[in-house]
Amino acid sequence: MNDFGLNTVSEVPTNTSSDKIGLVDMYLSRGLTMQSQYDGIANPVFESGSFTSPDGAFLDHVEIQQGAAGLLTGAGEPGGTVNLVRKRPTEAFQAQAEAELGSWDKKRLVGDISGPLTQSGVLRGRFIAVSDDSDSYVDYVYDDKKAFYGVLELVPNADVKIGLGGAIPEG
After folding, report:
1. CATH architecture for residues 9-86
2. What are phi and psi of 57, to 5 degrees?
3. Region 42-48 average pLDDT
4. Is the pTM above the cut of 0.85?
């Protein structure tokens, strides 16, 4: 997503052989619907059309598996599976900031900070904040979005990893 400058999951189908239908985030592959997953777990809310697509800043990557093989990932769809893999806390401290300017008064800022919260590194955290404002070529149409994502991860040993996270989309 970073390589192509994609900020939302809605932009992904235009860069793959899958397709998005309508204004909702429902995907098609070869004319058949595709199932959505978060971190490999089925997300039936996504199929209903009432789901707000997460900002691309919250995602590590998007995996698209097309065709009947998508049925092997659980209660899938014959079109395939779209797996949204969220960012996780890192073992070492890292911080990143992004700024984007564009046509129609587009301004986008992203801040991402991650790393250990304890000396031993057993507790890790990640926080991402997004501000995305833009106008449109159509009068009185604009997008003003603020979103936040946070996750805590407890890693007592190499075999156990416990995580708790959430996102607050706005706009």
Report:
1. Beta Complex (2.170)
2. -65, -25
3. 56
4. no
